[in-house]
Write a structure and sequence with these properties.
Structural class: mainly alpha
Keywords: Heme, Iron, Metal-binding, Transport
Number of domains: 1
CATH class: Mainly Alpha
Order of helices and strands: HHHHHHH
CATH topology: Globin-like
Strand content: under 5%
InterPro entries: GlbO/GLB3-like, Globin-like_sf, Globin/Proto, Hemoglobin_trunc
CATH superfamily: Globins
GO molecular function: heme binding; metal ion binding; oxygen binding; oxygen carrier activity
Number of strands: 0
Number of helices: 7
Largest sheet: none
Distance between the termini: 53 Å
Oligomer: single chain
Protein name: Hemoglobin
CATH architecture: Orthogonal Bundle
Organism: Paenibacillus aquistagni
């Protein structure tokens, strides 16, 4: 018997949902005093890469890898001072974005659990 398990990408609602999440997320990131300064003024290229990455990370098409190769996300974040507080701030902005686009609490918890490991894996500096 074959079982079918939906991916987070499918459960969230696919391409349109990922786009809405990213569009809700980045204004929160830019406004956050701990992490906003880490991002460029022109946030649009960052948003597009995040959309491609989250699509792939949540089990959708391999858009990021097709365009940019292996994500190597830890290496890409090394130039930035990522503290535990900044990782939590990033997750907090994502939590708010998920709520804003009406993702259920149960699904939001699964998304945040999936993102929490990488967010903390990127920490490369002690607490401030």
């Amino acid at each position: 018997m074959e079982r079918y398990h939906q991916t987070l990408y499918e459960l969230l609602g696919g391409e349109d949902a990922i786009r809405r999440i990213v569009e809700a997320f980045y204004p929160k990131v830019q406004a956050h005093p701990l992490i906003g300064p880490l991002f460029p003024d022109n946030i649009l290229p960052v948003m597009e890469k995040q959309r491609l990455f989250l699509t792939q990370f949540f089990g959708g098409p391999m858009l990021y890898s097709d365009q940019y190769g292996h994500p190597m996300m830890r290496a890409r974040h090394l130039p930035f001072e990522i503290t535990p507080e900044r990782a939590e701030a990033w997750l907090s902005c994502m939590r708010e974005a998920l709520k804003e686009v009406n993702v259920s609490e149960e699904l939001s918890a699964a998304v945040l659990a999936r993102l929490s490991g990488p967010a903390h894996h990127f920490v490369n500096s002690p607490s401030t």
